[in-house]
Amino acid sequence: MSEEKKTLEDLAELSDAGATPEAVVAAAPVYEQKLDAQGRAYATGKRKDAVARVWLKPGSGKILVNGRELETYFARPVLRMIVHQPFVVSNRVDHYDISCTVKGGGLSGQAGAVRHGISRALTFFEPELRAVLKKGGYLTRDSRTVERKKYGRRKARRSFQFSKR
For a Cys-Cys bond, which of 23, 65, 94, 119 suits 138, CB 3.0-4.6 Å? Predict the structure, then answer.
């Protein structure tokens, strides 16, 4: 962590000193490939209350979600499209096999969590894809969650029906 801070401070000093763009790029942090003992990249994705654990390895494009095929787990085409977005943006369709487990939330939140996990795992496997995925917004965790219900109200903001008499 301290090495990253030093690198960021060095970048700031270089750009303030009027250094050439090549020098600034050369001093930019370099991301490394992170793989486990089986040669897989692991990442966690989150969306609403859903949490997805994703393992990515080179293969033929097979995606398993909780032990089931993608088409059976996410029956709606929109949800399947959400899961495939990181591959389409990075031109890596049918290059990797995905195995993931998802818990919590509904199907829409789970699809978003799987997308987030796949994006992060892709950056761990191929660090040069980070810029493309970051630009598309796939590495950012969508922090929108359901607002809690307040006391004295019917829902989070809706109040009880008013009766004059």
Answer: 119
pTM: 0.79
Per-residue pLDDT tens listing for the chain (165 residues): 445 555 556 555 655 556 555 554 555 677 888 888 899 999 999 999 999 999 999 999 999 999 999 999 999 999 999 999 999 999 999 999 999 999 999 999 999 999 999 999 999 999 999 999 999 999 999 999 999 999 999 999 999 999 998
The letter for the amino acid at 24 is V
Output the DSSP codes for the chain.
Answer: -HHHHHHHHHHHHHHHTT--HHHHHHTSPPP-----TTS-EEEEEEETTEEEEEEEEESSS-EEETTEEHHHHS-SHHHHHHHHHHHHHTT-TTSEEEEEEEESS-HHHHHHHHHHHHHHHHHHH-GGGHHHHHHHT-SS-----PPPPPTTSSSSSPPPPP---
